[in-house]
Amino acid sequence: MIESENLNQEEIIKELCLCNGLSYEMVGQEGSDTSKLEMFFLGYPRIVGLSLFPNLTSLTIVAQDIKEISGLEPCLQLKELWIAECCIEKIEGLQECRNLEKLYLYFNKISKIENLEKLIKLKVLWLNHNTIKNIEGLQTLKNLKDLNLAGNLINSIGRCLDSNEQLERLNLSGNQICSFKELTNLTRLPCLKDLCLNDPQYTTNPVCLLCNYSTHVLYHLPCLQRFDTLDVSAKQIKELADTTAMKKIMYYNMRIKTLQRHLKEDLEKLNDQKCKLQKLPEERVKLFSFVKKTLERELAELKGSGKGHSDGSNNSKVTDPETLKSCETVTEEPSLQQKILAKLNALNERVTFWNKKLDEIEAIYHIEVKQKKKSHGLLIPLLLIELETVGNFHFEEGTRSDDWFNFCYELILSRFCAWDFRTYGITGVKVKRIIKVNNRILRLKFEEKFQKFLENEDMHDSESYRRMLECLFYVFDPEVSVKKKHLLQILEKGFKDSETSKLPLKKEAIIVSNSLSISECPRIEFLQQKHKDEKKISLKHELFRHGILLITKVFLGQSVQAHEKESISQSNYPMVNSVFIPRKYLLNSVMGQRNCDCSVRQCKWFVFDHDLVLPEYVVEFEYITMVKAPSLFSVFNNVILEESKKNPEVSVFSKDLKFDDEVIKMEPRIKARPKLISLDDKTILSLAKTSVYSHIVSLNLHGNSLSKLRDLSKLTGLRKLNISFNEFTCLDDVYHLYNLEYLDASHNHVITLEGFRGLMKLKHLDLSWNQLKKSGNEINMLCKHTTSLLTLDIQHNPWQKPATLRLSVIGRLKTLTHLNGVFISEEEATAAMKFIAGTRITQLSLLRHSSTKEERPRILSIWPSAKILTQVSKLGPHLHLSGNCYLKITALNLDGQHLFEITNLEKLENLKWASFSNNNLTKMEGLESCINLEELTLDGNCISKIEGISKMTKLTRLSINNNLLTGWEEHTFDNMLHLHSLSLENNRITSLSGLQKSFTLVELYISNNYIAVNQEMHNLKGLCNLVILDMCGNIIIWNQENYRLFVIFHLPELKALDGIPIEPSETDSAKDLFGGRLTSDMIAERQGHSNFKQMQELNWTSSSIRTVDLIPVDQFRNVCNVNLQNNHLTSFSGLIYLPNVKVLCLNYNHIESIMPRLKPQTHLTSRQLLYQKVPSSGYGQQGISKTNRDIMSSENLPPIMHSLEVLHLGYNGICNLIQLQLNRLRNLKFLFLQGNEISQVEGLDNLVVLQELVVDHNRIRSFNDSAFAKPSSLLALHLEENRLRELGKLQSLVKLEKLFLGYNKIQDITELEKLDVISTLRELTVYGNPMLDGSPVNSDDRAKAEFHLAELQAKKNSLIPVTHSPMDGRSFGQVKTPPIEITNVLLPSGFSHYLGSDVTLTPEVEDKKNKNAGILTNNPRSIHAEIAFRQLRGISISPSLLSHQNIASPTAQIYQSNQDKRRIFGSNFPRSNRM
To answer: Which end of the chain has fewer CB atoms within 10 angstroms, the N or the C?
Structure first.
């Protein structure tokens, strides 16, 4: 290796030629042909000899000792330059290499990017592995495509790469980038395809350690093909990032809207309180105004009493004797005018006093509102930061249940010393809110540096280091008020140099303290001094009453006490981490001598490393002072009128009220006149004291009950009209008074000025104390029809936009000189004209507030796209809009421009995003041409109806919050196939009808409206994509019990309701509470209407119904047939309240009782429970005693469901008939209990009209004494497929005609002889019993049997009584009893052997007889179910099936007979009423 220090230029050139295969001797001739040179690992100190190579295009110098770039001036053709792994400290010497395209300067000592401005052809620039801190000096490199800045000290990106729009590859690995916000700056690089922030060859950027890092980058840079050396070109990866980001945006949008709603609720409470407090002053003002106007009328009449016409003797007729007498009294009293004037002055003083009180309440209200807004104002920016950082910045509001909240609360109280604050009149501190801030970015920095300290110490010292962690208060600059923006910067970015004060002691250090007084007293003193200097008159305590504390976690490290006469800086204390000053050494006027010992522990620290001060908690507090705070909830609490009336001596204003009474009682006391209700010609002439209408110049109608002004058209000369204190709601009756100059319409109920026209000479108009709301409409009316108006009073009206009302009126009514009693100055008039000029959409306003960007920037923000785009890129007023330029406008943001209408947008055909929030719009007009709109925002206007937007089929987001909406046009949303966000909060909407086809809707915000009926929720049931719904503040919340669970149940796809995420437990609770609940809403939803009075049938099978809740019951009074088969009912539930139900089918449920069970059977023993579940368990005796008790109790129960005649309870698992309480169904005629687990027939004694009982397929062994103890009307009894062994206890069934005993355990044929007592029996079924042992029946046996039966029947040749058809009520005459028929005896010789030759089987049935005889033969459940189902559905049963039924079971014959006689309820159902 040749020593570089000793090399001369000639030797370097020789070595250069040798390394590149060139001849040193021939270099003069060959050098011009050389285009590429390389030098590796030779240790050269400088670049020399390049003038010998004028055509050089590529130069590579690696691992040399070169410290500066020089000698490249001859290389004008150089395109590629490598100077890597050298000692270069500065970029220089490249000015002449203007053809350079690739520049590699990695592994050097470069600290700044500079001197590259002229390399405009540069495409590749590698500056990795240097000491660069800032990205700069690249603005002119428009062709740059590859930039490598890895392995430097860069911590921010900023807008330094905005000019490099051709950049395709960027490597920033191994730097100090720690914020997601910095990465969003890369979204302005449209060609970027390869980004590396976490290259394995370099250390990791702090930002790469954050949660959702990859998601954030891929969402903001969707065009990336490679990211952190990985291929991310797959479509699924981008879609996943987009979906995640959209979910985040939706979530934070929901949270911000929830915060805004809470703020509105708080402000409404304040407003309500203000209105209550203003009630007394307002009533006082009205009272005095009334008396004042009455006195003025009397005074005018007094002055004009000698004239030929009256100017206002309004309310009494001249012919009234009492009035004449009073007039004489008036004229006789010489000092009456003086008394009236004196009383008027006193009244004016009282009006002034109470108006002042109104103003005071209004002022305090505004202070409270400001404080509320300020308190809420911090939370929304925090949420936005949380969204932008994808959750790496997180905040949480604390409550008493949080340990950290209690820790902070106790910390503040423990560090508050009342002695320190006594000078300011402060006695305590009240914590109003604590916000916990978790900034993962700052926390990682803090922990990293703290860990370094621990690693440098042994374990013993490490523990002492941990003890140096303190929670201290950050000391704000007392001379700068704590601005929200400043506080947010600290919370997001930490304590940077730019955030610290410029005072000498604070240049390098962060100041913290463990004392509230050290943190706060300087601020209080500064504010007091400032207040004193400005000589303001206000409560001094209000200056500092509210404050903010920032609690930080601080690592003090090596800390020493500050030396006197030395400035606190790192240079003066090089080996320490912090410096402290005890309180006793602090020079402050407040921190002097005192009696307590708190000062011993109180210190102020100066921490030099900003990363070791971590902001953790923000505390909002209020000082408790000896002077109570002026609050709406404290100062004027006793002002409310009701309290004043009840206890006036305690009231704050008791003295004033007494004084008011004295003024009212002053002389003269005017006697009240009778009030006029209507006006006619005679009354007018009487009031005017004249007979000529044209002579009436003034008319005073004050203090009456008039609501109309008829017959005034003849008063052509009327100039002055007073109609105050009447009942007018409009003023359309004065349009014909063309000469009217003065009109007082105060203290009425005027809601509109429509019809108010033609008053061109009107100069004075008083409309105060009315109900005018729509400022735009009313000003337009005045502007058109009162062109000479000089004075106008419109105070005390509920105007919709009061803030800009005065400017609007002055700007439109140019002739006005006084408004609301205040003179209009020239300056105010000029400002009003300027204001009005800005309320129109002009070409200039379009230029200022529009953008031509084709795509919405990919920003994690909840703000409207129009707002984002116009902030990012505005057209600017210097441009001129030509016809084509209008077509280029894609975004328009005209928020807060005080617009009264939308105009001049006809040419904006390609407008995609528009916002018109906070204006004075009353209609959605002017947008007809903007059919390509994707987002439309109209918040904060006065719009009453959504109209004119049905053609905007591309709309994805629509927001019309804070308006006066009552609804929308029909089919408005039907064609909006892309609408996924709809926000209509704070309006007057009463119905959600019209949203049924908004299938793409994902977010619906409709809080604070007037939705009251729970049926409205059914309009949203088809919106399967709806995941966020906000209904807060609607009447339905209070009307609907368990509202939240109700909505969750009906909208199962919801993820969040009313700003609160839906937990899985809530979903389960909703299913438990509302699942299986048949309600009026469900029926209305299926029917499409709620007119239940026309319903006759309720058919709701297989729907998992558990309860029936039909309200109001009266609406269902015509329902007579109910079918709820195959559900989960355990009782009749709400069905018992339906008054006219005749047929009830509840097969395949779990009916336990007619009435719902109120209490669990906790009183039953295990044996009793076992017996109820399994009757064969052997514990029968206890069941018997319980049965007796139940019989006694059920007999005393009142009857219910008086109309019920047919009841189906098959296959319900019933084991105890007494528990069913069937005795209460006194009019029941047909009872079907097949397929249960009944062991005893009991509890049916009171069913005296029961004609047919079906208990097939149960567990009946025998009948107890009480089974059929009473005589019964039973005609048919079905007992097939039970366990009967004996047939006793049936003697009371004296009317029984049919008895079915097939498939039982009857072994002795003599049991049938017990039926002899039933003389009416004509049909008996006994097949499938053991008594028929299966031996062949020969002809002799058959003959004997027939003879025996004939003998039995001969004894019964009597007449049978009249019987009634089960449902149709038709009667039969007395007929001869038919012979008893024993049917369906199952014999081994086949069916035809005993059916006889007259019965034939169809081939279909014959084929099925060996295949279990179809579904009805061997499936007892299906026997009844299939027939019932078919009959319910109106399906006819095939002859083959009927034949089969005749073979299988006579029960089927009964069903068929029922169908023929229209006995089964399904056949009675008219199809038109079926659901």
So the answer is: N
